[in-house]
C-alpha cells in the first residue's frame, strides 16, 4: 500500500501500480475499442484525401470514380475484419499475425510477417504524426509552417513519455477517440441534414480552385492503373486493423468473443466514417492536388508554394461547421490527438512484438523479460530515431510517407490469412463433428477470400507504388529479416557450442584443487572483508597478492601486514611499468602452467558506490582486470563488494527501476492470464 | 621480437616499440630542442603581429614604440629562461611548475598551477592551430576562406593520430622545427643583407595601406595602458617555455645540465627570431589592424570584409623573398607545420600532467597508470572538444584567442618562481657550505627577480585583457580547480570510510559459514563447469538455483537434472512476472535473514564472447543480477567464465591494447629512470 508521504511523488511519476496489481485490470469493450482502434479509426483522417490526390492526376473529372473506390475500400475493410475475427477466435493468445504465420507456414513466414510489422510500426509513427501535424495546422497556422520541427517535437515528446514509463490508460485513450468519432459522425449527420433537408450549398475552401491535370485524357490501361493507385492509397484506412488480434489477452471474458465484437464494431465505424467523408468531400467539392503549388489554379494561375492545402477532413469540417467555429476547432484538435495516440500505439506494440521475437531467439534475449527498462528503451529510441529520420527525409509530408506505409500491412495481412487457411485445413483433417466442420469450412472460406483479396491488393500496392517509395519499406523489411536471421543463427551456433555432452568429458573433467588469490591494494575494510570471506571458502591454498607499483607504498603495506599479523602469505609482484593488469594475468597463467588441473580463484575487493561519476573514480583497474581474467581459462573471478554509505542512493534507484512497468502492459493483458492462455490455446500445442 | 608476418601491420599501426624497449631512447640535445621547443619557438609566428595589432589602435605613429616592446619581451623571456634553469636543476624529476608550487607553497598553490596548465593546454591547441591555419592561408587561399572548417579538421586529425597512439618521434619533430628556425634566420639574414648591403627597399603587401586609428592622439595614462596591452600581447611568445622543465627525465645524462643548456639555446633562438621579425616588420612597413576590414584603408577607403590580412611573418617573408617564391612557400608551410606540432605537444602534455595529478588524487585514479588507453582517450577527447569549441566560438581567429591565452601561463610562471624563492630560503637555512650558499643566493636572486617580473606581467595581462577575454580563461581555471578539489575530497572521504580499524571490529567479524548458490538457466557446458568449480570450493552448503520463468522449460531442466544424476540439489524459484533478478535477490536476502552471520556466495556461469554486438545478445540478465547483488550485504559474487570460440578475437584485441604506448612517453623519459630520479632527487625527500 502507498504511504501518505509518497503521494506527491506518485502524482509526478506515477509508480503506483505494480505489475502484479496491474494484473487485475482487464478491459471492457468500451475501453478496448479506443485502446486498440485509435490507429485504424484515425486512418480515416488521411485515407480519403489520398484517394482524391491520386485521382487529381487525371483532373477533377476523375473524381467521379471516388465513390467506387470508397466502396472497394469498404469491401476490403469488411473482408479483413471478418478474417481477423477468425484469427481472434483461433489464436486468442495475442501472438497475432506473427504467431499465425509462424505456426502454420513455418518460421520463415513468421519472420517475414515480423519484419513487415516492425517496418509498419516505424511507418505508423511517421505517418500518424505527420498527418496529425497537418490536421493541427489547419487550425494553428504556425504548426504547418514548421511542420518538420513540430513533428519531431511530437516524436521527442512521445519518446520521453514512453521512456519515462507512462503507461497508456484506457480513459486517456478513450476520451480523444470518442470525441473524434462523435465529431466525425456529427459532421456527417449535420452535413447530410444541411444538404438534404435544408438544401444548403456547402463549399470547401478549395471548391473554387481548379486542378491542372498532370496527365490529360487518361484512358484504358493508364486510367485503370491510376484507379488502382488511388485504391491502394485508400487502403491506408486499413492500417492497424490487426491491433486487436494482438490484444486479446487484455479483454474481459469471454475474451475471444468480446474481441471479435469489438473488431466488428471498429470495422463498421471505420467504413461508415470513410464513406461519409468521401461523400461529403464530393458534395462540398474538395479539390486536392498532389503538388498543390503548381497544380491548384485560382482563376487559371497556380496558387504558388505559399499555399497550404488542408487535409480533406478539415476542409469538409470547415464547409459543414463553418471556418473557425468551435466544432471545427474541436474536431481538428481531436483528429490531431487521435493521430498522435495512433503513433503511441506503435511505441507500445514494439516491445510486445520484440518480446515474442526474443522468445523465439530472433531478437536479443533480454527483450524477452517483461518490463526490462533498458532493453525496452533501446527499442523506443530505435523506433523514434527511424521515424524521425523518415519525417526529416520526407519533410513530414504524409502523402509521400503513405507510399511506404501500406506494403508492410498487406504483407502481414496476406501471410496470416494464408496461414489461417492452412490452420483450418489441418483442423478439418482431424475434426469429425459435422457442426464443427461446417463452422470450420465457413471460417476457411472467409480466410481464403481474405487471403485472395489482400494478396491482390498487395500486388496492386507493390506495382503502383514501388517506384513511389514502397521500395524503401521493402528494403527495411529485408534489413530486419536479415538481422533477425543472423541473431537466430548466432544463438543456434552458441547453443551448439555450449551443449553439454552426455556423460563426463574433458571439458568438465573434475579439476583437482583450488588455488585462491586475494588481490590487495592497501589494507582497509574492503580488503579485510575479502580476506575473511576467502578464508571461509577453505580452498586448497590461499594467498594475498599485491602489485608493486610504488616501492614506498608497497613497503608500507608489507609492514602493516606484519604488524597486524594477518595469517595469509602476501605475495608481491613487481611492475616496473606501473601496470596492474599484466603482472596479475601473467601470475595467474604461471600458476595454471605449474599445475594445469588446478583452478585459480581470484578474489577482488570492490567498492560499491552510488553515483555514476563515482564509478569513474573507483574500481576502474579492478573492472579492467576482471575483463581480462575472463579470457583466461581455468579461472573464477569473485567480487567481494563493500557498500559505501553513498551506495544506499543507488540501491534505492535500482529498486524503483525494478518496479517500473513497461508501456504496452495494458494491451498485453496480465501476465498470469496470458501464460495460462498460452498453455490452453490449441496453437500452443501445435 | 617482431615476426616477419607482422611487418605490414606494424608499418600501418606502428606498435613496434614496446614500452620497455622505449626505455632505452633518451634524447640528445639536438632532438630535445625541437621536441620541447616547438611550442615556444612557434609562438614567434604570431606574437610580433599581436604587438603591432594593438599598437595600430593608436595609429601607425604608435609603431615606433614596437622596438621598445620587443626589448621588454626579450628581457622577460631571458628572465624566465634563467628562472627555469634553476628549476631544472632543483627539480629534475619532470614535475615542473606543479611540483615546485605544490612542494614549496602547499597543495592549493599546486592545484592553482595545475588548473592554469590544463587551461593552457586547451589554449595551446586552439591558438596554435588557428595561427597555423592563418599561415597556411597566406600560401593557400582556400584554407583561409574556410578557416573554422580547416582548423577543426586539423584538430580531428591530431585527435585521431593521438587516439590511435602515434607517438611523437624526435625526428618527426626535428625536421619542421629546424626548417622553420633556419627559414626565419635566413629571412632575417637575407633581409638584413638586402636592406643594409644592397640598399633594396623591401615593401610588405600592407605597406601601401593606411591605418585608421581607433583612438586619435592617445597620450598619458591611455597611451601607457595601450603600450602595456601591446606588451602583454607580445608575451604570447613566452608560452611553452616551461615545457622543458617537465621533460628533464627524457634528456641524456647529465640530465639537468643538458636541459638547462637546451633552455638557454631555446631562449636565445626565440629572442633573436622575435626581435628580428619585429625589426623586419618595421623596415618593410607591415601595417596590421585589429579590424582590417574597417581600419585598413587603401587610398582612404576601407579594404572591406573580403580582405585577408596575412600574418606578420608571412608578410615579411613576402617582402624579403618575393611573393610566391619557393622560400616564401616553404617558410609558410614550415610555420604552419611547426604550429600544428606545438598543438600536438598539448595532446602529449595532458596525460603527463593528468597522471601526476592522479597520483595526488586530484584526478581519477586510473589516469595514474601509464599507458591506460581508455583514460587517456577521455583526456584527449576532452581537450580536443574544448579546443574545437573555442575555435568555433572565436571563429579560429588567433588574435581573439590570444586574449585568453597568456593568463594561465603567467599564473603558472609566477607561482612556481615564488615557490623557488621559498625553496632556496629553506635550503639556505640548512646549508652551511659557503660556496654552495653563494650559489643558492644567486639562484634565489634570479628566481626572485623572475617572480617579481612575471607577477607584474600577470597583473598587466589581467588588467589589460580581462574584459577582452581573459575572464574566460580565469573561469576555466576556477572550474578545473573546483572539480579537482571535489575529486580529492571524495577520495579522502572514501579513504576515511574504508580505513581499517585496529584490532577486530564488528565489520570484519568472522562470518561463520558459507552458503553457495550456483545459478542455472539450462544445462550446458558453462553451467556444468560452474557446478564443478563450486563443488571444489567446499563451502558449507551448496545448491543450484533456477528461476521458473517458463513452466515447460523448467520442467525439462528438472528432468534433465534428474536424468544426469547431478548430485547438487536444484532449487526452483517461482517468478510469475518472468523476472529473473528480483526472485534471486529476495532469495539471497531470505538466506541472510535466516542466519545473519553466514555469507552467501552466488556463482554465475558466464559466456565470454568476442564482439561488442555479441555482448548485446548474452549475459545481460547475468550482468544486471551481478549489479544488483553487489548492493546486498554479506554476498560474494563469482563469475565462472566459459570462453566461446569467438572470444579468441577479443583476447587478441585485449593483448594488443595492452601493448599500446601512450603518447607523451618520449617526453616523460623511460619509466625506470624516472622512478629512480624521483627517489634520488632532493625534492622527493622534501
TrEMBL record, chains A, B:
**Where does the protein end up?**
Membrane
Q: InterPro entries this protein is in?
A: AA/rel_permease1 (IPR002293), APC_K+_Transporter (IPR053153)
Q: How does it sit in the membrane?
A: Multi-pass membrane protein
Pfam families annotated for this entry?
Answer: AA_permease_2 (PF13520)
Q: What does the UniProt keyword field contain?
A: Membrane, Transmembrane, Transmembrane helix
Q: Region labeled Disordered — which residues?
A: 656-686
Q: Per the record, where are the segments of Basic and acidic residues compositional bias?
A: 670-686
**According to its UniProt record, where is this protein mainly located?**
membrane
Could you list the residue ranges that cross the membrane?
A: 69-88, 109-133, 139-160, 172-193, 218-241, 262-282, 326-353, 374-396, 402-424, 445-463, 469-487
Q: What is this protein called?
A: APC family permease
Organism, as annotated:
Streptomyces thermoalcalitolerans
Amino acid at each position: 500500500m502507498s504511504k501518505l508521504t509518497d503521494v506527491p511523488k506518485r502524482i509526478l511519476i506515477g509508480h503506483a501500480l505494480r505489475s502484479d496489481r496491474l494484473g487485475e485490470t482487464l478491459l471492457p469493450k468500451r475501453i478496448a475499442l479506443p485502446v486498440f482502434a485509435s490507429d485504424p479509426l484515425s486512418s480515416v483522417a488521411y485515407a480519403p484525401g489520398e484517394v482524391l490526390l491520386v485521382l487529381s492526376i487525371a483532373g477533377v473529372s476523375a473524381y467521379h470514380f471516388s465513390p467506387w473506390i470508397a466502396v472497394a475500400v469498404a469491401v476490403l475493410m469488411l473482408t479483413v475484419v471478418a478474417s481477423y475475427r477468425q484469427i481472434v477466435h483461433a489464436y486468442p493468445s495475442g501472438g497475432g499475425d506473427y504467431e499465425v504465420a509462424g505456426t502454420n507456414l513455418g518460421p520463415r513466414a513468421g519472420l517475414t510477417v515480423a519484419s513487415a510489422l516492425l517496418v509498419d510500426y516505424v511507418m505508423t509513427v511517421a505517418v500518424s504524426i505527420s498527418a496529425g501535424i497537418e490536421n493541427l495546422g489547419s487550425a494553428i497556422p504556425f504548426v504547418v509552417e514548421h511542420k518538420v520541427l513540430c513533428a519531431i517535437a511530437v516524436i521527442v515528446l512521445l519518446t520521453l513519455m514512453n521512456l519515462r514509463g507512462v503507461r497508456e490508460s484506457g480513459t486517456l485513450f478513450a476520451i480523444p477517440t470518442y470525441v473524434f468519432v462523435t465529431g466525425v459522425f456529427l459532421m456527417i449527420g449535420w452535413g447530410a441534414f444541411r444538404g438534404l433537408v435544408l438544401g444548403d450549398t456547402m463549399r470547401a475552401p478549395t471548391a473554387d480552385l481548379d486542378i491542372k491535370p498532370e496527365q490529360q485524357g487518361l484512358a484504358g490501361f493508364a486510367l485503370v492503373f491510376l484507379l488502382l493507385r488511388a485504391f491502394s492509397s485508400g487502403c491506408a484506412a486499413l492500417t492497424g486493423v490487426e491491433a486487436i488480434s494482438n490484444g486479446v489477452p487484455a479483454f474481459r471474458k469471454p475474451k475471444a468473443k468480446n474481441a471479435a465484437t469489438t473488431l466488428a464494431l471498429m470495422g463498421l465505424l471505420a467504413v461508415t466514417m470513410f464513406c461519409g467523408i468521401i461523400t461529403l468531400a464530393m458534395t462540398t467539392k474538395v479539390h486536392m492536388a498532389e503538388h498543390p503549388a503548381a497544380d491548384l489554379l485560382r482563376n487559371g494561375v497556380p496558387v504558388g508554394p505559399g499555399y497550404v492545402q488542408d487535409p480533406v477532413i478539415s476542409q469538409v469540417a470547415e464547409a459543414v461547421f463553418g471556418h473557425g467555429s468551435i466544432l471545427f476547432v474541436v474536431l481538428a484538435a481531436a483528429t490531431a490527438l487521435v493521430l498522435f495516440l495512433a503513433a503511441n500505439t506503435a511505441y507500445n506494440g514494439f516491445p510486445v512484438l520484440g518480446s515474442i521475437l526474443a522468445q523465439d531467439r530472433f531478437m536479443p534475449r533480454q527483450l524477452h523479460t517483461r518490463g526490462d527498462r533498458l532493453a525496452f528503451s533501446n527499442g523506443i529510441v530505435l523506433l523514434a530515431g527511424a521515424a524521425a529520420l523518415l519525417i526529416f527525409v520526407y519533410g513530414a509530408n504524409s502523402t509521400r510517407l503513405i507510399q511506404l506505409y501500406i506494403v508492410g500491412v498487406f504483407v502481414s495481412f496476406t501471410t496470416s490469412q494464408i496461414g489461417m487457411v492452412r490452420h483450418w485445413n489441418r483442423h478439418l483433417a482431424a475434426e469429425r463433428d459435422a457442426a464443427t466442420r461446417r463452422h470450420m469450412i465457413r471460417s476457411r472460406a472467409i480466410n481464403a477470400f481474405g487471403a485472395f483479396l489482400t494478396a491482390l491488393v498487395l500486388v496492386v500496392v507493390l506495382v503502383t507504388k514501388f517506384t513511389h517509395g514502397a521500395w524503401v519499406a521493402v528494403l527495411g523489411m529485408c534489413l530486419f529479416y536479415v538481422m533477425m536471421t543472423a541473431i537466430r543463427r548466432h544463438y543456434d551456433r552458441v547453443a551448439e557450442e555450449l551443449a553439454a555432452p552426455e556423460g563426463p568429458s574433458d571439458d568438465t573433467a573434475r579439476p583437482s584443487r583450488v588455488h585462491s588469490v586475494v588481490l590487495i591494494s592497501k589494507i582497509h575494510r574492503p580488503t579485510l572483508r575479502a580476506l575473511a570471506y576467502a578464508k571461509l571458502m577453505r580452498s586448497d591454498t590461499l594467498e594475498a597478492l599485491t602489485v608493486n607499483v610504488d616501492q614506498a607504498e608497497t613497503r608500507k603495506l608489507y609492514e602493516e601486514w606484519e604488524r597486524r599479523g594477518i595469517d595469509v602469505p602476501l605475495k608481491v609482484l613487481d611492475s616496473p611499468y606501473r601496470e596492474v593488469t599484466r603482472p596479475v594475468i601473467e601470475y595467474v597463467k604461471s600458476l595454471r602452467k605449474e599445475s594445469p588441473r588446478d583452478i585459480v580463484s581470484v578474489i577482488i575487493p570492490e567498492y560499491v558506490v552510488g553515483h555514476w561519476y563515482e564509478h569513474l573514480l573507483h574500481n576502474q583497474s579492478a573492472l579492467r582486470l576482471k575483463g581480462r581474467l575472463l579470457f583466461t581459462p581455468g579461472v573464477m573471478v569473485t567480487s567481494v563488494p563493500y557498500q559505501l554509505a553513498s551506495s544506499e542512493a543507488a540501491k534505492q534507484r535500482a529498486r524503483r527501476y525494478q518496479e517500473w512497468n513497461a508501456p504496452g502492459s495494458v494491451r498485453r493483458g496480465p501476465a498470469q492470464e496470458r501464460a495460462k492462455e498460452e498453455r490452453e490455446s490449441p496453437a500452443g500445442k501445435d
